[in-house]
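Work Package 3 (structural annotation) set out to generate three-dimensional models for the target panel prioritized at the project kickoff. During this period the team completed the workflow that converts sequence records into discrete structure tokens, so that structures can be stored uniformly alongside our sequence database. As a representative example, we reproduce one entry of 182 residues exactly as it appears in the project archive.
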Amino acid sequence: KSVVKSAVGGESFFVNTYTAGGSGGWVSLAPSAPGDIMEFHLAPGEEFFMQGGAFMACTPSVDMDTKFQGAKSLFSREGAFFLRAHAPRGVEGKVFYTSYGAIKEIEVSPNAPVVVDTGHVVAFTTGLSYNVSKVGGLGSAIFGGEGLVLEFNGSGKVYIQTRNMESLATRLMPFMPTARSN
């Protein structure tokens, strides 16, 4: 099944549909990186937001599109879009998502905002707003990576991953072969 939305308001992407025959069947899910697979139950009218690489599967009742994060995140290595899973009014659904490493759930309340490195955010629930900000100075950007964080405010949950793919890539870089000139 193809999920098609307008360009900036909802980028086009495709979702495969699997239908069991008369005898029933099952589908196995496997993440592209070692990590958890989690299920999120969407109540009617509820939304759930995920980083692009986190989405794995959903039930047919779930509408999927992208949500542009705006100019505040154009410099984020994680991209300027979140995937939005939405259960239409009167319909429930399930979303399956994955991470690199374990997924940890963090409760956010109006009096307790949560700040997370952009490379560790996997997903978050409706009821949260966020701001992107830079932490540290030039040294943080050079030695610690990009130095961008998301500060979540409101009432809801943020799901983070215990590992960061970009950090792994940075650690492996010295061991990668390089092209040799003749």
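The chain has two helices and 14 strands.
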